[in-house]
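Figure 2 data, in text form.
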Amino acid sequence: MMTAIGVSIVLLGNGVTAGVMLATAIGIVPLTLVLPYRQYVQAIQFLWPRYDPFMPIVHAATVVVGALLAVTVPAGPARVLFGTATLTLVAVMVISVIKNVPLNRYVMSLDPNHQPDDWVERDPRPRWRVWNLLRTSLAVLALLFNATAAASL
């Protein structure tokens, strides 16, 4: 029973993580790339508080439960796959904390009504997009590992 609950939590949490990141990659990022400075800053300042702290909590819970599954399910393919998925989600977390969050904090600190003189050089959108595409790909890959693990039980 506990394994079934854990699997449900991991699939739901990983699915939400991958889904939100994919939606961001195919919808929000292309929009923000074409917005002028003021609208871009306003959009991020509107959106980011809606994702944080919800997404970090969902993601961290998924990692913790995934790690528990990786050590509690019987030895075999499911254990390896849950472990691999968990490590992949840890990589997503590391990229988020080290790369995307600092860029988000920078944009949150900006005044939408006063564009910095060096904005062309400091515009974080291209870098944020690259890191987001990487972590989105990893989150989807982790979901594939978790779904395969669940199916192999």
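Caption note: The first helix runs from residue 2 to 34.
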